[in-house]
Amino acid sequence: MSKISLIIEREYLSRVRKKSFIIMSILGPVLFAAMMVVPAWLASMEDDEVKTIAVIDHTNLYSGQIENTELLKFDFLDEGSEEEVRTNFKESGYYAYLVIQDNLLENPEAIRLYSDAQITMDAKGYVQRSLRDHLKNQKLQTYEMEGLESILSEINQINIEIPTVKIGEDGSEKQSSAELTMFVSMAFAFLSYMFIFIYGTQVMRGVMEEKTSRIVEVIVSSVKPFQLMMGKILGIAMVALTQILLWVVLTILIVTGVKAAFFPDSEMPSGTQAQIEMMQDQNPEAAEQIASMEDGFNFNKILEMVNSLEPLKTLLLFIFYFFGGYLLYSALFAAVGGAIDHESDQQQFMLPVTIPIIISLYVAMMTFRNPGSDVAFWFSMIPFTSPIVMMARIPFDVPLWELLLSMALLIGGFIATTWFAGKIYRVGILMYGKKVDYKELWKWFRYSGD
Amino acid sequence: MAFLEASGIVKRFANHLALNDVNISVPENSIYGLLGPNGAGKTTLIRIINKITGPDEGTLMLDGKPLRSSDIMKIGYLPEERGLYKKMKVGEQAVYLARLKGLSRNDALKRLKYWFEKFEIQPWWDKKVEELSKGMAQKVQFIVTILHEPQLLIFDEPFSGFDPVNATLLKEEILELKQKGATIIFSTHNMASVEELCDHITLINNGKAMIEGRTEQIRRGYRQNLVNIEFSGQREEVEKILNDNFELRNLNSVKDHFEAQVKMTEGQSLNNVLSGIIGHCTIHSCQELLPGMNDVFIQVVNQKEQPSQNQKS
What we know:
The complex is a heterodimer of chains A (450) and B (313).
Chain A: H1 2-16, H2 19-45, E1 51-57, E2 72-77, H3 82-87, H4 89-92, E3 96-100, E4 111-114, H5 121-141, H6 148-157, E5 164-167, E6 173-176, H7 178-212, H8 216-220, H9 225-262, H10 271-282, H11 284-295, H12 299-308, H13 311-339, H14 346-369, H15 374-379, H16 386-393, H17 400-428, H18 438-446
Parallel strand pairs in A: 1-2, 1-3
Antiparallel strand pairs in A: 3-4, 5-6
Helix pairs in contact in A: 1-9, 2-9, 2-10, 7-9, 7-13, 7-14, 7-16, 9-13, 10-11, 13-14, 13-16, 13-17, 14-16, 17-18
Chain B: E1 2-12, E2 17-27, E3 31-35, H1 42-49, E4 57-62, E5 65-66, E6 75-78, H2 90-100, H3 105-118, H4 134-146, E7 152-156, H5 164-179, E8 183-187, H6 191-197, E9 200-205, E10 208-214, H7 215-221, E11 226-233, H8 235-245, E12 247-254, E13 257-263, H9 270-277, E14 281-289, H10 293-312
Helix pairs in contact in B: 2-3, 2-4
């Protein structure tokens, strides 16, 4: 046992001290933090210049119908001043001028917005929305209904948000958020996929390094090949954990640090808020939806939703499936590394190992839409795909028996692959300069002796 | 008593028999040579002794007790395919490998300091292995092999890749280790070093042990009754006598005397040769010529193939 821990220690330290690990550990959180902070920062940097737009309304129907905002002011000018504004536009100080030629209900194209610069989406969108609201009201008024004012104000207050409620097995109700659930399951599935791939490949490279540098025979004269393989796999697993931990901690530190430095008093505008503001100008309906979602994100509600995901259970399951999947695949990756002599040979053996991983990600994507489907069920049972697919299903509440069965199968699966990989690894690492094919691997697998 | 005794070792691979009933018996505190052409099964036997692979049949006894996994701490092994982690620092790596053999960190550091100074590679302690020359890396490897002071040392082709200076150093160290009480097995193609170092040998060919025994005895066993005689006097007379009664292989004049290589036929001895010529010349020296291990090696390896050919014809 002490020998395995020696190997784990070496594998861990030699990787954690690498420059690439340190760079990744710093770069990752910087990128994550940038993803959260930059949209907010951009939003706060939005130009606060007040633009004034001249309105020349030949119909006199719309004067005063476009309200000034903080950044957009409207000057309603006389009919006759169009010529003057046009010729002296540069000196006039106007950002743009709007010309309305005709009744817009009858002739919606009789309107133009002129400027010497490209007119921003904000300005155009705002004018468009203001006029559209006004025209809608005008049209309604032509029906001469009674009490229209109050009807309109009532109509404008209609809003709907459907809270989703998950019924527990004991009949208890928990408020859940479909958006949050989906986001969490997607994040888990993708995280498992990424780490199995990155760190599984690292195991393979490590084995190949030992084989090509010819140190492996020196080491297996002190420890059993299986100990060497497991030591490497576990050591690299700890590197993966360290990386995740560093990313989480550093991201939180950077985000809170930036918040304290740049938004000391006010609440920092979140990325979603900035997105809502941007969307409002282009697609008011979508923006409203997000805004309502955002409204729902007051602290207590979030807490309730997160609780509906049972964070402790989810985290424990994530750790279990992550490790199960990692152990299962890294054993196979170790066998591949042991079997080949040159990097150029790895393709033919890598493919059968990577295909199930990629398939699981596809199935996981489908699972978000239909977590109870047969496909999702079966792929969350097969040990080769369950680490990723089951993670995608967990936020949608999986029956206990399915979970237990899947976990048992995964444990069995990784014991079987580790045993299988160990047999190939043991022979492969001491085999030099031999062209290896699947027939050869099968022979190695069947060698007797320990 | 034999320190290491392997009896009836059989190892089968998928389509050939790597070792076919091999017995070796390595006396304590001796140097034991394992010879044989490439692919004869030497490395397989060595791996079995090191518990890297297991035999299909046969038993291994170390110091009178069956060899167990924990015994590999008593063994130091320098494999033929050897290397170090390229990206790791020399000192750190040496400590790591020593600890894998069961030394504590402090013991490892203490002993490494002694050996690094002895081999004058102390300044390289903090360098990465990839910066080392091949010779220096081999010194590091040798140190790591013997650091835990194993009772049994196994060197597989220790001289391959060593330059003459380091090879000499290695030879001296091997002899010193023997003096300190270690038992050493080594496999090599370098027959000169076998004659020089090995007390006993086994020659393996095609998975079978062809000959085993004390090096001198084996060489004597393969002697061809050749004697070398230095004399001065009447060359023609001597030449005639030797040609008539024996087989004269060679006769040269060297400086102020002559040298003759004579092959005696069955039943003749050096005494017959000397009494034949003693009245015709002055004899300065005479010596029986033992075949070199090289000759023995070639003879044994070829011998095996001849009988099978005879059987067919």
